[in-house]
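At your convenience, could you comment on the folded chain following this short note?
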Amino acid sequence: MFNVLLKAVAGIICVACFISCNEYSGVDCDGYDYDNCRGIEPDSVDMEILLTQLNDSQLIPLVVYKGKFDFSGSPQEIYKVDTAISALYEIRLPLNADYSVRAEYQRNGETVFSVDGVYCYKKEVVVCDTMCWSIKGKTMDARLKNFD
């Protein structure tokens, strides 16, 4: 009898610990802002690609690849080839995949490339008994660094 009671109490404690061990366990459910809660499971992401707008690079050719960028020069799966006209380029991409971008800049008569990549995926979170979806990996940064 004591063994059964001990197992029941241990089970209740385990369930209570599991429920309280999420990142939103301390949220005030009465005052929570559900505007940030995406209730419908997403299948794509509006990816933001950050670029550098230079005087001699008003138009920025870029290539978005599906997969990680291969610096060895092996052929890669090209998702889209385009030319950006501002420092922010947005593209809708399917989730749960690696993506990379290569931006081409003209600087002092030379061609300079900037590369970045990210794995974008969806994550299910429960906030106050409501299931929400968040998207991780929504930005790639192909801005030039130290271009003085």
